[in-house]
Design a protein that fits this description.
Radius of gyration of chain A: 29 Å
Number of domains of chain A: 2
Shape of chain A: elongated
Strand content of chain A: 15-25%
Oligomer: heterodimer
Structural class of chain A: alpha+beta
Helix content of chain B: 40-55%
Number of strands of chain A: 12
Radius of gyration of chain B: 30 Å
Shape of chain B: elongated
Chain lengths: 384, 396
């Protein structure tokens, strides 16, 4: 500790260089934060899915609908604790680029299956009583500046009203929050009854079922039972765990995410290399001074420690601020304007970041530090 | 005036010749810039390639008709009667076999990706006989066309490459039927190559679509016939349709993925650019510091401050241009033509495409490198010009 002043003086020797090195380390770690959030986004929240939830979709593909009558039959299967259905609405709010998921659901059942959607009790009551009511996640609500009781017109694409109208009006009865940081708060949920009674076609059909099983261990077995129950019917099913479903979506997006990440990793290390090089250079320039320190009695180990501490301090300061900044910036939402619903930096990556900071400080300090330790006083003084 | 230009030239040359002595730091700065430009170009080439595949799909006289209010083929539905009215509309080109109009169905089927073995939504398109005249770039390269009324499919070349089990002669079970692959087709790199085609008449019962279709693809007599065709359809009380040029339709379809890629790409490139500017600033400040005595000597000899500024800026620009060119080339070599497939979010179906590093992208990247060079050089240059001569000579 008593050498802190010396270390600080060394860092402030060339203020401009220290500041720029600090800033480039800082930028590198902001980038690291975004990398971790991008990774999260492209994994489609695979890590966040409920282990006890299964999704039942049409065997041919997600876009084919299933009969509503399956609900009772699924509920009767042993090991199924709860079941709800949802239907993709696919409407357009003002213009197609304003994309967000709209789903027709049975409110109570759906909320029961997704306890991570937190809806105040009075708003829930209002929604249940209002046939054309809807609730929307916080992220989408703030994206469009919606408030409670706003009337939101949405253009149906495949669903038309029976009177031929395309515009479906909804009242925002509630805004739900996510229980955890990664909870998807972009969804727009409304009454299935409103859809089913008013639409022209497809009455009595739903998009998919969500099933909660009593024992997650037995989920695969129950999934097989559900599929067996509808085998050879006009609409066969495919049941997967929510995790497998999210995974398959992530796979469909393919290696684009992986490529973007590889690029960002390359960038991160390039920035570190540049910063490390500057720090090493800063020590090289002071060879003469280090020799003087040794002359006045500092041991080789102590000089090495001083140099290492200097680089750790610099990187720690820059990296620490960078990580904190990244944490804040990524929680502001994704940089693509709502295309990536899950975008945040998971806490475990803060730890990884901290470890990287220490590693960078040690590595970029190591070479000059060892040189400083081995420095032969006479040689160094002659050179300086 | 002329004298100061000559001065600047001499000092710049002197400066550039001495760059070898500062090789490590110079290379580090160039590397930083190379990284930025490489990233910038590589990420944007994803969006560029995706767009190219979609946009070049539409010929100028190609038009597609959906149900009104729909934004993708996937969501549309058209009755048999409506598709006939559309085919008979004015402006539609007519060949020996009748109107160049193909009413089509569009569904997705699960096929495993070759690279990962995981299931992906591959588009399966049911078409009518005129389809081969409407989509006139489609050419069978292996096998033959499917026969009307049979459970036969032909597979786009890109789909055959990206997905497993779509080889000639193999058979697949979709929608309760067995399908045999009888041909592979190419379509000049357009989106059709990501698709699997069959007879619409066979697909309708297999997917319980009755007599309905989803879209009608039409070729017009000329690109100018578009408004006549569109007006006739929109005025017809029996129809409620959306008429759009194919090129515009595919442009719309590529918007979401490009949004994601551009959003992320610009963010990463901006952050990285800031980092690289700091790196360049550091390099140039130390370059100026190392040459303090030299610069002071030059000033004492009568060289002007402007000449010194120009020389420092020139060094910084040279380094960043070198970095920019390297980064652009690496991105080109590593990513141009890289084949992959991803989900088109608008229709939940797979599109196979290749990354495209276009000259415009490389130019943008080099433009960015010049900007970084200027920002990274200008402050150190000003400092160099302002050095008080007497104290600087005494230094070191």
């Amino acid at each position: 500790m008593k050498y802190l002043h010396l270390i600080a003086r060394n860092l402030l020797r060339k203020k401009v260089r220290t500041v720029f090195t600090l800033l480039s380390v800082l930028v590198a770690f902001v980038l690291f934060g975004y990398l971790s959030a991008i990774n999260m986004a492209f994994r489609m929240g695979v890590d966040l899915t409920g282990a006890d939830r299964l999704l039942v979709i049409h065997k041919v593909s997600l876009i084919q609908s299933l009969p509503q009558s399956y609900e009772g039959r699924i509920a009767a299967i042993a090991g199924v604790r709860d079941v709800a259905h949802a239907s993709w609405f696919g409407g357009v709010y003002q213009e197609p680029s304003n994309f967000f998921a709209q789903m027709a659901v049975e409110p109570e059942r759906y909320l029961r299956l997704y306890p991570e959607f937190l809806l105040p009790e009075d708003q829930k009551k209002a929604w249940l009583a209002d046939r054309t009511g809807a609730v929307v996640g916080r992220q989408t609500a703030s994206r469009f500046g919606w408030k409670l009781q706003d009337r939101i017109p949405i253009q149906g694409t495949f669903y038309r009203k029976r009177d031929g109208g395309r515009t479906w009006e909804f009242t925002i009865d509630g805004i739900y929050e996510g229980k955890e940081k990664g909870t998807d708060t972009t969804q727009f949920l409304f009454h299935y009854d409103y859809l089913d009674e008013a639409r022209q076609l497809d009455q009595g059909s739903v998009g998919w079922y969500i099933v909660r099983v009593a024992d997650p261990e037995r989920a695969p077995e129950i999934g097989r039972k559900i599929d067996a129950a509808f085998a050879n019917s006009s609409a066969e099913t495919k049941t997967t765990t929510e995790k497998a479903f999210a995974q398959s979506f992530a796979n469909q997006v393919g290696n684009i995410g992986a490529i973007i990440q590889a690029i960002v990793i390359a960038v991160f290390f390039t920035l570190l290399l540049v910063a490390g090089n500057t720090m090493a250079q800063a020590v090289r320039e002071r060879t003469g001074e280090l020799a003087v320190l040794k002359t006045v009695g500092f041991s080789g180990g102590k000089v090495m420690g001083l140099v290492l501490a200097e680089s750790l301090l610099l990187v720690g300061l820059g990296g620490g601020i960078g990580l904190a900044l990244a944490w804040g910036l990524t929680s502001l939402g994704d940089p693509t304007g709502g295309f990536l619903p899950i975008f945040f930096m998971p806490a475990k990556d803060l730890v990884v970041g901290a470890a990287l900071i220490v590693a960078l400080g040690l590595v970029s300090g190591a070479v000059p530090a060892v040189r400083a330790m081995r420095l032969a006083i006479a040689d160094a003084l002659r050179r300086g | 005036m002329l004298r100061s230009i000559a001065q600047a030239g001499v000092v710049t040359l002197l400066n550039l010749r001495s760059m070898g002595q500062r090789l490590g730091a110079s290379m580090a700065a160039a590397l930083g810039v190379a990284g930025v430009v490489g990233v910038f170009v590589a990420v944007l080439s994803i969006g560029e390639g995706f767009r190219a595949t979609l946009v070049k799909t539409g010929a100028p006289d190609a038009v597609v008709v959906f149900r009104g209010g729909t934004d993708t083929e996937m969501n549309s539905i058209l009755g048999l009667e409506q598709t006939r009215i559309i085919a008979d509309a004015p402006g539609v080109r007519r060949g020996a076999d009748g109107a160049l109009a193909s009413a089509e169905l569009f569904v997705v089927v699960d096929v495993p990706k070759r690279s990962t073995g995981t299931e992906a939504n591959v588009p399966l398109r049911g078409v009518q006989p005129p389809a081969f005249a409407v989509h006139d770039r489609v050419r069978i390269v292996e096998g033959r066309r499917f026969e009307t009324g049979r459970n036969e499919i032909i597979v786009g070349a890109a789909a055959a490459r990206q997905f497993a089990g779509l080889d000639l002669g193999s058979s697949l079970g979709w929608g309760g039927n067995k399908w045999t692959v009888v041909g592979v087709f190419e379509a000049a790199g357009t989106i059709a190559e990501s698709e699997v085609w069959c007879d619409a008449g066979v697909l309708q019962p297999a997917y319980r679509r009755g007599e309905s279709f989803q879209s009608v693809y039409v070729r017009l007599e000329s690109p100018d016939a578009f408004s006549r065709f569109k007006d006739a359809l929109t005025a017809d009380p029996r129809l409620d349709v959306r008429v759009i040029r194919e090129s515009e339709y595919w442009e719309e379809q590529s918007r979401m993925l490009r949004g994601v890629v551009q959003g992320l790409g610009s963010l990463v490139a901006t952050l990285m650019g800031i980092g690289a500017v700091f790196g360049a600033l550091n390099t140039m400040y130390s370059a100026v510091a190392a040459r303090t005595r030299e610069i002071a000597t030059l000033r004492a000899l009568g060289f002007g401050g402007a000449a010194v500024v120009v020389s420092v800026l020139a060094e910084s620009l040279l380094l960043s241009l070198l970095g920019g060119a390297t980064g652009g080339s690496i991105a080109y070599l590593a990513f141009n033509g890289y084949q992959t497939s991803t989900m088109n979010w608008q229709s939940f179906s797979q599109v196979a495409f290749a990354f495209r590093v276009t000259p415009a992208l490389i130019l943008q990247g080099i433009g960015a490198s010049i900007l970084m060079g200027l920002v990274g050089g200008v402050f150190p240059a000003i400092r160099a010009a302002r050095l008080p001569i007497a104290t600087a000579l005494r230094e070191l």
